Amino acid sequence: MRFSGQNVLVTGSSRGIGAEIAKVLGGYGLKVWVNYRSGADAAEAVKAEIIAAGGDAETIGFDVSDEAAFVSAIKTIVAADGAFSYLVNNAGITNDKLALRMKRDDFMSVINANLTSAFIGCRESMKTMRKKKFGAIVNIASIVGETGNAGQTNYAASKGGLIAMTKSFAQESATSGIRYNTVTPGFIATDMTDELSDDIKSTFTSKIPMGRFGNPAEVAEATAFLLSDHASYITGETLKVNGGMYM
Ligand code: NAP
Q1: What predicted TM-score, i.e. pTM, was given to this entire model?
Q2: Quick one: pLDDT at residue 195?
C-alpha cells in the first residue's frame, strides 16, 4: 500500500484492534507511535514486533481522556519526527448497563474516553497537519453507533457521535488536504468481546451473515486503506467491517 506520509499515532495500540493496526501500518513502512494507558509492557512488545519485522516504532503512554496529555503527545511526536502524518483514534472502553440503571458518571465515562478524546485528537491533528496541507485521520467507531444496542446507550452515543463528528471535521478540513474517515467494526475477537458470555456470542454470531466474528487484522487493513494514498479522494466516509451484519 502507498503512503505519502511518514508516521502515525495509534491510540490504544497495546492490544486488540489497535495493536494490529500498529503492526499492519508498521509493515507498510510508517513509523508507528504505539500508545497505551496502563499496558506499558504490552506496548513495548508491539513496538518490538514492528522493529523485528524491519519497521520503526516508539511507545508513548498517555490517557486519551487527559486533554493536556494528548496535546503534549502530539507535540512530542512532531518534535521527534518533524512531522505528524496520520492519526488513528482507536482507544475505547465499554461500561455496559441498562439505561434505567445507568448513572450520569457511567454515561460520561464512556463519552469522555471514546468521543471527547477523539475530538481532541482530531482538533490537534488539524492544527498540526494543516501547516503541511497533508494528513489523514481514521476514527474507530462501531456498528453499535449505527444500530444502537440494548445495554450500551453510553457506548452507542459515543460511537454514533464519532461518526457524525468525523463528517464535520472532514467538511472543515477538506481544502486543507486533511481527510477524516470512520471505520465501524462489527463484532471482532478481542479482549472487549471476550467478556461476553458464550450465549451472547452465539446469539450475535447467528446475526452475522458471514457466520463468524471478525479478526483485528480485517479492521487493520480497512484502516490502512483509508489512511493510504489509494483513498486520496475519500473523506467523511464510514467504512463498515462487519461481515454483513449491518448493510
Ligand atoms: P480492547 O481489546 O479492550 O483494547 C483497548 C485498547 O485501548 C487497549 O490498548 C487499552 O490500553 C486502550 N485504552 C483504553 N482506554 C484508554 C485510554 N483512556 N487512553 C489510552 N488508551 C486506552 O479493545 P478493542 O476490542 O481492541 O477495541 C478497540 C476499538 O475498537 C475501541 O474503540 C472499540 O470501541 C472499537 N470496537 C471494538 C469492537 C470489538 O468487537 N472488539 C467492535 C467495534 C468497535 P490499556 O490496556 O493500556 O488500558
Answers
A1: 0.98
A2: 87
Mean pLDDT taken over the chain: 97
Q: Are 107 and 153 in contact (CB under 8 A)?
A: yes
Cβ(187) – ligand 1 distance below 6 Å:
yes
Residue type, 164: A
Catalytic residues: 155
Q: Are 43 and 22 in contact (CB under 8 A)?
A: no
Q: Which domains does the chain have, with CATH numbers?
A: 7-189+215-241 (3.40.50.720)
Among 32, 35, 37, 63, which residue has the most ligand 1 atoms within 8 Å of its CB, making it the best to mutate? 37
Query: What would the pLDDT profile of 69-108 be if each residue is shown by its tens digit?
Result: 999 999 999 999 999 999 999 999 999 999 999 999 999 9
Taking residues 110-121, report their average pLDDT: 98
Q: Provide the grid cell at 135.
A: 494528513
Looking at the CA of residue 141, tell me the nearest atom of ligand 1.
44
Secondary structure letter of residue 233 according to DSSP: T
| Packing angle, helices 153-173 and 104-111, rounded to 10 | 30
